Amino acid sequence: MEPPVPPDRDSVSAPILSLSDEDLMGRVAEGDERAFSELVRRYQGRVVNLVSRVLNDRECSDDLAQEVFVRVFVHRRNYRRGSKFSTWLFTIAANLAKNEIRRRVRRRNWFSLDALQEMVSDSASQLADPTEGQEVALQRQQLQRAVGQAIATVPEKYRLALVLRDIEGFAYEEIGHMLGIPGGTVRSRINRARMMLKRRLRPLLRKEETP
Amino acid sequence: MSCRQSRKLFGASWDDELTQAEREWLEAHFASCASCRTEYEEWTRTLEMMESLPRVEVAPGLAERSLAKARRQPAAADRFPAHVVRWIPITATAALLATAGAMVAQWSGIVSLGSNTRVETPVVREPSLVTEATPSDTPRPSVSRSASESTLSRADGTLAALPDSLLDQGEDVEFILDAMTLHKGRAHPASRLSPTPVRGEQAVITF
Question: Residues in domain Putative zinc-finger (chain B) (predicted)?
Answer without folding.
Answer: 3-37
